Amino acid sequence: DLLRLCLISKSACLPRLVQLSHLHTSPNSQAPVPALPEKGGKTRHGIIPEEIFQLLYPKTGVTGPYMLGAGLLTYILSKEIYIINHETFAAACMGTVIIYGVRKFGPDVAAFADKLNEEKVQKAQEVKDLAMTSLAQAVLDEKKEQWRAEGRQMLFDAKRNNVAMLLETNRRERVHMVTNEVKKRLDYQIALQTLHRRMEQEHMVNWVEKNVVTSITPQQEKTSIAKCITDLKVLAKVQQAKATV
């Protein structure tokens, strides 16, 4: 019978576990967890939450929670659900000592714990600030590298333009060199033709002069000299007549 009850309870709890597994794997499980409060809520008598009193006040009044507690304690004792024995007195003594210790040394211990907690938080904050600073510097370095990568394209374009200008300069220099060489050769041909023409003219003049000189006879030479002398005399007389007038 016990085994059957265990099997029945397991079979009854299995769908609930499946539902819980679906609940924990739902998208809501990715929601941020709310921050825990630094200090607990208000309590009365050290252990009773204030919310219980606020819940019972509208229905039972101010004394309702106390009457509920006293009645519940009387019911437990009268029905002997809880029996007072020596352990009760020992628990009461221990509770009194604990309450006294908490009230006596609680503020000092709390201050010491808060100091340790503040030191831990400060160290964690320093680590966080250092990490944030390093990450911010890394972001700035990454942006600078991206800016350099963008400027690299401009650098490559400038280098391409420089190479194109160098190639164009070399081409023009070669064209200029070819032009000068062609001009030199044309000037050489023109000078050669001019030299040939001048030599031909000089040869022709020399040949004509030589033939003319060789064709003149001594009698013609004497006649031409006499004619020249006569012309000179006539010119001299004309000049003298002009001078006397």
From TrEMBL:
Function text: Subunit b, of the mitochondrial membrane ATP synthase complex (F(1)F(0) ATP synthase or Complex V) that produces ATP from ADP in the presence of a proton gradient across the membrane which is generated by electron transport complexes of the respiratory chain. ATP synthase complex consist of a soluble F(1) head domain - the catalytic core - and a membrane F(1) domain - the membrane proton channel. These two domains are linked by a central stalk rotating inside the F(1) region and a stationary peripheral stalk.
Cellular component annotations (GO), alphabetically ordered: mitochondrial inner membrane; proton-transporting ATP synthase complex
Name of the protein in its database record: ATP synthase subunit b
Family annotation (Gene3D superfamilies): 1.20.5.2210
Subcellular location, record wording: Mitochondrion; Mitochondrion inner membrane
Molecular-function GO term, any one: proton-transporting ATP synthase activity, rotational mechanism
Principal place of residence: mitochondrion
UniProt keyword annotation of Ion transport present: yes
Gene this protein is translated from: LOC110492600
Source species: Oncorhynchus mykiss
Keyword Acetylation recorded: yes
UniProt keywords, alphabetically: Acetylation, CF(0), Hydrogen ion transport, Ion transport, Membrane, Mitochondrion, Mitochondrion inner membrane, Transit peptide, Transport
Self-association and partners: F-type ATPases have 2 components, CF(1) - the catalytic core - and CF(0) - the membrane proton channel. CF(1) and CF(0) have multiple subunits. Component of the ATP synthase complex composed at least of ATP5F1A/subunit alpha, ATP5F1B/subunit beta, ATP5MC1/subunit c (homooctomer), MT-ATP6/subunit a, MT-ATP8/subunit 8, ATP5ME/subunit e, ATP5MF/subunit f, ATP5MG/subunit g, ATP5MK/subunit k, ATP5MJ/subunit j, ATP5F1C/subunit gamma, ATP5F1D/subunit delta, ATP5F1E/subunit epsilon, ATP5PF/subunit F6, ATP5PB/subunit b, ATP5PD/subunit d, ATP5PO/subunit OSCP.
Family note: Belongs to the eukaryotic ATPase B chain family.
